[in-house]
Amino acid sequence: MQPTATISRLKAAGAPPRLSGFAQWADRHFKWLLVAPAVLLILALSVYPLLFSLVVSFINYDFQVPGHAFVGLKNFERVVFDPVARWSLWLTAWLSGISVAIEFVLGLLVALTMVRSFPGRGVIMSILIVPLFISPVIVGQAWTLLLQRPFGPTNYILTQLLGQEVTIGWMTESPWLYFSLIIADVWQWTPFMFVILLAGLTAIPPNLYEAAELDGVNAWQAFWAITLPHLAPMMLLALTFRLLDAIRMFDTIFIMTGGGPGTRTYTASYYLYTVGFTQFHLSQATAGSWLFLIFTALVVMLLVRRLLKTEPV
Amino acid sequence: MNDHDKRDFLAGLEAEVDALMRGETTRRTFITRFGQMTGMLAASGPILGLMTDWALAQQKLELADAGSPLGQAQAAAMKASMEGPADGSAFRAVEAAKTHSGVTLNMTYEVGLQALDPRNFSGPMWEQLTGMKSNVVELSNPDQYSKAVAEHIAGSGAYDVLDISPAWTPSLADGGVIAPLDDYIAKYMNPADLEDYHPLYKALPTYKGKIWGFFDDGDMFALYYRKDIFEDPKMVEAYQAKFNAKLAPPKTWEEYAQIAQFITDQMAPNVYGAGHFRKAGSPGNQFDFLQQYRANGGKLFGDDMKAGLVSDAGVKTLQNMIAANAASIPGNNELDAVSLWAAFLTGKVAMIYSWPPSGRMAANYSQSATAINFIPQSQIAGKVGYAVVPGNPEHATGFNKALSADSANPEAAYLFMQWVCSPPVSLARCMLPYALRDPYRISHFKSELYGALFPSAKEYLSNLNSSANVGLLDPIMPGAQDYFLSIDRMCTAVWAGADPKASLETAAAEWNETTDRLGVDSQKAFYTEFLKLPGATADNTVEKLGMAVTL
Questions:
Q1: Is the reported ipTM for this assembly greater than 0.85?
Q2: Residues facing B349 on adjacent strands
Q3: Pick from B28, B31, B330: which is nearest to A150 by CB?
Q4: Residues B336, B343: Cα–Cα separation, whole Å
Q5: Fold of domain B222-396+476-531
Q6: CATH number of this structure's domain A90-262, picked from the four choices 1.10.3720.10, 3.40.50.20, 1.10.645.10, 3.20.20.70
Q7: What is the pLDDT of residues B181-233, one digit of tens each?
Q8: Do B481 and A280 touch (CB under 8 A)?
């Protein structure tokens, strides 16, 4: 189109209305206006609380001790030298590692099973992902009802199956209480792994498998040579997302074990909650949150770096 | 502008002109619509707020059948508020509060059943009497402390009346969160109504010589047992043969464990001797340990404020508790208060000790309210006896009504507190089937109307009064939450197999750390104040101080 044609079309449309001073200013700063609400929200809801929490971790901010005196690293020291904090960090790593590993293996198996079409696949998939939509508190409550003695049916069913009386304290006896927490987590989050991995599997070009078949490659070799390399980025993505979520494990523990017996099921989140909202030592809890954030950030950095390096074959 | 740039410019211009001609969104229209949308969002806030207020607003005044004991108590409360006696605290509060008509009082309540009373009964009745509205803010138990402090620090004046645990009084008073009531009491209250409090509860809101609230919930532990089992001739005979003693409600903790084990041996799996709420985080462990430990002669702190837990009394207490656990229903250590009630009400357990609603639930009175229908119907109604917990029962927390120091309407808030805790009004509130407020006034224990609520209500009230006569108070001092948490951790660790002595040492170390953190001298001063209260130790119960109430 020629410039004269454009100009004549503009003339035909009539002269544009005159802009007011504000409209002109808005027009000039349009891009800033667009991002301003989001920036303000982030500043108000993320940056300010983050900076405030940093300040709080260096002062006394305890609902039982008057005043807000500067205490240096005292709050951090309290967390570092608290055996309960150290245990909770270890348990967080251990529980989340085991849970996510099991969820990954189960999710992959289910995804591999469901990748091919078969009658009823849609219904089964819908049922499989239902746990994803349930609040973790409800999941914890449901597993409590199943496992808690004397009302839960688990021991009764096991007794009937094994032919001898089973009297396991699923939420009070070690190691069973860890099994209970892992089972609840795995039940809820395996579908997450499944969904992500299934998406990855369906994205692998089928002609690769057809070519492999023509070359006489068996199923196991195809899995190692085609599926695994192509699925690797999705696997890492799923593991990263899930691990980040798992290390915040709180709800099911709050409902199922209450952190007990003793402090045996204190995860980092549960520890921070207890210090902050049961004992009201807010500055200690804040300092602990910062330490926990640093540990988490290290894990995230490692995973994200690896994720960014991964390229499909 | 080179040719390439010119082409790009013209293409862009053409696209913009086309969009303009088609009437598509331009920057200006976008800004206009964005402004409109922002305006709508801003306007929607108050609209949504109104809808929320409407949804959460107190209900219409909910009154029981006029012929029922509760209905009569409610009518009496209304009459006392409107007609007097003229020197009654309820009447005087209402008369004075009429000048504050139109004021809205913001009051904190524990979330759930506790908040139904101000929503359905006392709030609407107060509004009807005075024209003052009430806004009930439901909070979880820890938040009833933390939010009150946070709002005080922020200076928001968000609350007028606070429902607090008595253990928090010193912290909140010293922190300036709550205000003393002495001047208001002198001006408005009938002193006789203050004297109507059971002596165990009367002094609870007193700290450093001032009154910081009105006690409002008699959370006294009591023993509830199956009379039909204890009176079963076969059981009585078997117990006599085995122990050469009469099968009766236990007087000591050793006897308690022995009886529980005997019933379990005789009747399990149909009925077990006892049940306790021992789940981590449910407060049963702390209350039970504290009552048994002190009944066994244990001291909470030494003269130097070091924890006294590591002692013969501590070891004995844990051993008794372990013995009781072993004699209890399977899963005893996994039960919380509600599941323990379920076990008792369904007839699976012969003895429990817990809060006063246990008796009302066992008689199927509480379950008459739909709000509390998550509790199973009692299969043991008419079969339950009441006794004082062996040794000294714990007064397990309770509630004080306190006046927020930041209230914009302190006098109005005070008048509500005086009215709602006055003898006739508090009686009607304690009789509500769902409210979980338990009798605490002498007039409650003597009330004919309460005594007519269910067939054994008089015995029930009498036992609560007897329990209060020998009852022990939770420690009332800063750091109480920390001390309680350490006990809970210690107990649950022991239930899971940890060594009692080592666990006592761990808990004692945690107590000492808490004391050091809060300041040894300061904590000592608080503890000294606490020890002055009747019921602070097993040696100065109300009964031992010669102040026991006989009905």
A1: no
A2: B272
A3: B330
A4: 11
A5: D-Maltodextrin-Binding Protein; domain 2 (3.40.190)
A6: 1.10.3720.10
A7: 999 999 999 999 999 999 999 989 999 899 999 999 999 999 999 999 999 99
A8: yes
